[in-house]
TrEMBL record:
Family the entry assigns: Belongs to the ChdC family. Type 1 subfamily.
Pathway(s) it belongs to: Porphyrin-containing compound metabolism; protoheme biosynthesis
HAMAP family with a match to the protein in the record: Coproheme_decarbox_1
Name recorded for this polypeptide: Coproheme decarboxylase
Keywords recorded for this protein, A-Z: Heme, Heme biosynthesis, Iron, Metal-binding, Oxidoreductase
Enzyme class: oxidoreductase
Functional description taken from the UniProt entry: Involved in coproporphyrin-dependent heme b biosynthesis. Catalyzes the decarboxylation of Fe-coproporphyrin III (coproheme) to heme b (protoheme IX), the last step of the pathway. The reaction occurs in a stepwise manner with a three-propionate intermediate.
Keyword Heme listed: yes
Length: 245
């Protein structure tokens, strides 16, 4: 039987996508809107404090296209904290004007194919508990490794999988400084096997990287993908402008 890889797992992760009901938002009076915006900014302020004390991290992006209007990506040490954050948002004034579009629950994951990584190494700890970059663009999509006929990732021996992952890593390394990738594992946690979250300064680099990877065997033979979500950075101070009507 092929050997499973022992993963190293870090902070839990919630991707939370919301759509604004602009009609209801426009009908609200200006005090209500101001209250909703202030409360949301205070909430983000708390996330910023948590990030400063390295107890978690977050990213806030507007979403381009009709899949949602904005997304919150939250990293925390426990699943309970993720749940608390979404509940606080759900009880907020702004939530009265938004609908839940999609969410994804996972955990920051590093696979240790070479078997030589030391989980206590500060560099590895930094990757398991990362501070998310506030780069201009985000790209999120869930994915599976295929299990179909001759293309079944889960019957490949570990050495073979390690070789394919190595080639994958080599393609990715060419994008150093242009793209930062965060792989979150979600087997047993959500509907797909992994979440892929990419950050870039230049949005076109997502297309170039994802296209180039389509030719890596690990993707061409074994990659199955869900919906793609693309977004632009929403800074805390830009929230009032984004919500201005
Ligand atoms: C900047 C781009 C980039 C780079 C450098 C990179 C490197 C690496 C390395 C070195 C490793 C293995 C060790 C680890 O760190 O886990 C991985 C692991 C993984 N990757 Fe990756 N990946 C990138 C980018 C990158 C993308 C764009 C995708 C989506 C695939 C695509 O075709 O759309 C992806 C997927 C994954 C997955 C699902 C895993 C876990 C697979 C498993 O079976 O465990 N990844 N990845």
């Amino acid at each position: 039987m092929p050997e499973a890889v022992v993963t190293m797992d870090g902070w839990y992760c919630l991707h939370d996508f919301r759509t604004v009901n602009w009609t209801a938002w426009k009908q609200a009076n200006s005090e209500e809107r101001e209250q909703a915006i202030n409360e949301f900014q205070q909430l983000i302020g708390k996330w910023e404090d948590t990030e400063k004390s390295k107890q978690g991290s977050h990213a806030l992006y507007t979403v381009v296209g009709q899949k949602a209007d904005f997304m919150m990506m939250i990293l925390r040490p426990t699943m309970e904290e993720l749940n608390e954050i979404e509940t606080v948002f759900n009880k907020s004034k702004l939530a009265e004007f938004t609908s839940k579009e999609y969410s994804y629950v996972s955990v920051v994951e590093l696979s240790n194919y070479m078997g030589n990584a030391d989980e206590n190494d500060p560099e590895i700890q930094g990757r398991l508990k990362p501070i998310l970059p506030k780069w201009n663009h985000i790209c999120f999509y869930p994915m599976d490794k295929r299990r179909q006929g001759n293309d079944n990732w889960y019957v490949l021996e570990k050495d073979e999988r390690a070789k394919l992952m190595y080639a994958h890593g080599m393609t990715g390394r060419q994008y150093a400084g242009k793209i930062r990738q965060f792989i979150t594992g979600s087997i047993g946690l959500d509907d797909w096997e992994w979440g892929v979250t990419l950050f870039a300064h230049d949005v076109l680099q997502f297309k170039k990287l994802v296209y180039e990877m389509r030719f890596d065997e690990v993707t061409s033979r074994y990659g199955d993908f869900g919906s793609f979500y693309i977004g632009n950075l929403l800074k805390t101070e830009e929230v009032p402008q984004f919500l201005h009507v």
